[in-house]
Amino acid sequence: MKYDFSNPPSRRGTSCYKWDSFPGDYQMWVADMDFATAPEIIAAIKARVEHGIYGYAKIPEEWTASYQSFYRDEYQWEIPGEALVFALGVVPILSSSVRALTEAGDNVVILPPVYNIFYNSIVNNKRNVLEVPLVEREGQFYIDFGGIEAAFAQPKTKLCIFCNPGNPVARIWNAQELNELAALAKKYGVIILSDEIHGLVTRPGIPYQPFLTAKKENEEVGFAAISPTKAFNLAGIHTAALVCPNPAIRAKVERQLNTDEVAEPNVFSTVASIAALNQGREWLKQCKEVLFANRDLATAFINDQIPGLYAYGGDATYLLWVNCKDVEPNAEKLLAYLSSTQGLVFNDGAHYGKGGEGHFRINLACPTSRLKEALERLKRGIETYGKR
């Protein structure tokens, strides 16, 4: 393997949100990776640093071209240049879109268990969260389209924030599901915002389906937020893109992004994303091999060796969703015990909305040797928890 995913640098003492917030030797919660990013990206950033002047930056043409070529080659997605809009992150896109496309008191639909910041973007702007929980059947998650239609039919429902692929459930939604969601949105005049930041992190050989490419007509009712930050471990750089072919929707959201002052890049925003999309493909390919080997290892270990826990399979993200109801319905209580006795820090599933109770989320983006040690500690912790 050309790149090293076994010996990452220590993140302690670097003002790292993940490693410098809580005690514990196994910080497996915040969704970033413990691997250094691709050397090609580091080289591009170093070259920019060595220039020595860090004044105001603009969006170069190479930024647009890098997104277009990457998504064309990897997903057969032809993105018109005018449809791409820079933003400082996917979360700013979410919050600005809520402000641009809804009014205080309107409903915004989400499908929990889902990324917890969706709730913040809605509630902080005085909009109503309308939850339509995913349905679990035989270890797989499905969209409740009957519930979606009922939610969309409410007069104050204006927007649906959709997570594609799903975080934390690791589900890649297929074209049929995406098209049915779009058809209901068109029927009831609802706009779909598809958060696709995890789209680049899928099992080798199994690409995700972008919402806007599942059917051409989906462009009428929806738009997407994309970014290389999750896949290339660049979250602290703050760089993302809005993809919105519909000019009426795009004009509103772009105006709001500018009003919110999140539409201008920092010095490294475009440098890092251009290098990632143009030069980081081989690194990402190898990284995904490690990530999904870790996923398979962890899923098999938990389901075979830790009675009372159930780890869901999945073909997307480096986040593992685990059911702990048979051990402890109150996941917060269990996780506090695992943290204090085993040094394991995971995410409480209750943070992800309805259906998240009695679950927790494990971040698998670490060296395999560390993951193996963490799994042994998890096994030991569950055994001792039952003997208290």
Description of the structure:
The strands form four sheets. A seven-stranded mixed sheet has the order 2-10-9-8-7-3-4, sandwiched between helices. The protein has a four-stranded antiparallel sheet with strand order 11-12-15-14. Strands 1-13 form a two-stranded parallel sheet. The mean pLDDT is 97. The chain has two domains: 26-39 and 281-385, Aspartate Aminotransferase, domain 1, CATH 3.90.1150; 42-279, Type I PLP-dependent aspartate aminotransferase-like (Major domain) (Aspartate Aminotransferase, domain 2, 3-Layer(aba) Sandwich), CATH 3.40.640.10. The protein starts with 25 loop residues before the first strand and ends with a helix. It contains 13 helices and 15 strands. The chain is globular, with a radius of gyration of 21 Å. Helix 2 runs parallel beside helix 10 and helix 5 (145-152) packs parallel to helix 6 (175-188). The chain has 388 residues and is an alpha/beta fold. A hairpin with a 7-residue loop joins strand 11 and strand 12. The protein is 40% helix and 15% strand.
Give a quick precis of the structure.
The chain is α/β, with parallel strands linked by helices and 388 residues long. It has 13 helices and 15 strands.
What is the alpha-carbon Rg in Å? 21 Å
Task: Describe the main β-sheet briefly.
Answer: 7 strands, mixed
Pairing-aware structural class of the strands and helices?
Answer: alpha/beta
CATH architecture of the largest domain: 3-Layer(aba) Sandwich
From the spread of the alpha carbons, the general shape counts as: globular
Q: What is the H-and-E element order?
A: EHHEHEHEEEHEHEHEHEHHHEEHEEEH
Alpha-carbon distance between the two ends: 45 Å
Number of helices: 13
Helix content: 40-55%
Sheet with most strands: strand arrangement: 2-10-9-8-7-3-4
Number of domains: 2
Strand residues, percent: 5-15%
CATH superfamily of the largest domain: Type I PLP-dependent aspartate aminotransferase-like (Major domain)
* Oligomeric assembly: single chain
